[in-house]
Amino acid sequence: MTNGSREHALRTARALGLEAMFEDIFDIADADFVPKPAAATYERFFERHAFYPARAVMFEDLAKKLIIPQERGMTTVLVVPKPGQMDRRDASETARGEATSYIDFVTSDLARFLKGLAPDDPDTADV
Prior knowledge:
A 3-stranded parallel sheet has the order 1-2-3, with no helix packed on it. About 30% of the residues lie in helices and about 10% in strands. The longest helix is centred in the N-terminal third of the chain and has 11 residues, at about 5-15. With about 130 residues, it is α/β, with parallel strands linked by helices. The two termini are about 30 Å apart. The protein is built from 4 helices and 3 strands, in the order ααβαββα.
């Protein structure tokens, strides 16, 4: 799910070596050009992909875009810059100093965070 175009999302996924990990991309055109964090955009996304929000995780770099997913039952992860890395987000979008009950996890290392979720033993992956 992106406020950008499908082409931009594909280029980004390809550059990160993640293109095979996505079944589909829900872009701004799929959202009828109504960007996140509009509730209607998330609802359209849920309907189109027919999944249960309680079994999904939303990763975002802007805190305000995690409010609706958390209200709908999704686990939310705020991805922040690594220590020492320049933060290009506007200060009003970073969740610093604001209530963050809608953020379940914060990480500055997405790859490490995701690896921490993977089971060590492939035989227990379904447990």
